[in-house]
């Protein structure tokens, strides 16, 4: 019984398990070649699927790393959130509430501590330890030395408290997923209603969870003619009699 080549090929494609039977057709060499070709095609298809899967993973990885564009409106929004948080922490403190938790929540919501671990932070009222990169450092500054890293100079900036905080932005520099803003912010004392003017520079980065602060530098405006400092009184002896004098320690 003769079997055409087309019939044999159809049999190979339709019934791969029949390869062994085809050896009885009188064409064992050609059957073996067709079998090898079929296996080669199967491996080629598998390799193609694998490479497609790899490329898909690569494209997903690139998509994950793609910068999220930040806008000026994003900056205005996070500035408002920062101002509201400072006021809210002070109100919670004044009413006897859990201001520590309020400060912790605000710190991780506003600053990129979770995303980066540390940030660039130089608060206004710090002299002995001017730079505060960690959450513990920031907590000490905002709610007092009994919390966080316990820096003695910290009295709790946010629990002064303040009744209002308003931003006045001088300008922006927006670049992809990061931005820098510079200007003034004004703090209204909740008790005296006195307004303190402070200069700021903020750096922001946009993450999947939103815009976070990665840099903050605050300072009071330069005063070329500051008010005379209060000089301490020192008691000295003059002709056996005590005398009080002032020592000028101005720098």
Characterization of the model:
There is one protein chain. The chain is an alpha+beta fold and 251 residues long. It has helices at 5-14, 19-22, 28-65, 72-94, 99-110, 113-116, 135-143, and strands at residues 120-122, 162-175, 178-189, 195-207, 210-219, 233-238, 241-246. A five-stranded mixed β-sheet has the order 1-5-4-3-2. A two-stranded antiparallel ribbon has the order 6-7. A hairpin with a 2-residue loop joins β2 and β3. Residues 1-25, 57-64, 229-238 and 242-251 have low confidence and may be disordered.
Order of SSEs, N→C? HHHHHHEHEEEEEE
Q: How much is the radius of gyration in Å?
A: 36 Å
Runs with pLDDT <50, length 5+? 1-25, 57-64, 229-238, 242-251
Strand content: 25-35%
Quickly count the helices: 7
Span between N and C termini?
115 Å
State the shape.
Answer: globular
Task: Determine the fraction of residues in helical runs and give it as a percent range.
Answer: 25-40%
Average pLDDT level: 75
Strand order of the largest sheet: 1-5-4-3-2
Largest sheet: 5 strands, mixed
Q: Count the E strands.
A: 7
Give the class from helix and strand content and strand pairing: alpha+beta
Summarize the structure.
With 251 residues, the chain is α+β, with helices and mostly antiparallel strands. It has helices at residues 5-14, 19-22, 28-65, 72-94, 99-110, 113-116, 135-143; strands at residues 120-122, 162-175, 178-189, 195-207, 210-219, 233-238, 241-246.
């Amino acid at each position: 019984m003769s079997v055409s080549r087309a019939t044999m090929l159809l049999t190979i494609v339709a019934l791969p398990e029949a390869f062994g039977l085809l050896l009885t057709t009188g064409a064992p060499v050609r059957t073996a070649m067709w079998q090898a070709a079929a296996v080669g095609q199967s491996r080629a298809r598998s390799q193609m699927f694998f490479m497609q899967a790899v490329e898909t993973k690569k494209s997903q990885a690139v998509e994950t790393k793609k910068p999220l564009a930040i806008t000026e409106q994003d900056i205005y929004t996070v500035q408002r959130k920062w101002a509201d948080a400072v006021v809210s922490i002070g109100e919670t403190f004044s009413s006897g509430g859990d201001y520590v938790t309020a400060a912790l929540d605000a710190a991780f919501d506003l600053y990129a501590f979770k995303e980066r671990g540390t940030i660039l932070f130089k608060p206004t009222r710090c002299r002995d330890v001017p730079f505060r990169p960690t959450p513990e450092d920031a907590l000490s500054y905002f709610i007092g030395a009994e919390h966080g890293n316990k820096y003695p100079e910290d009295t709790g900036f946010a629990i002064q408290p303040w009744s209002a905080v308003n931003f006045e932005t001088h300008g922006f520099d927006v670049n992809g997923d990061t931005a820098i803003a510079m200007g003034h912010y004004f703090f209204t004392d909740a008790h005296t209603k006195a307004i303190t003017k402070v200069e700021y520079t903020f750096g922001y980065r946009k993450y999947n969870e939103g815009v976070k602060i990665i840099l903050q530098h605050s300072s009071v405006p330069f005063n070329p003619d500051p008010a005379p400092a209060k000089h301490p009184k020192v008691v000295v002896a003059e002709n056996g009699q005590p005398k009080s004098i002032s020592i000028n320690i101005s720098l």
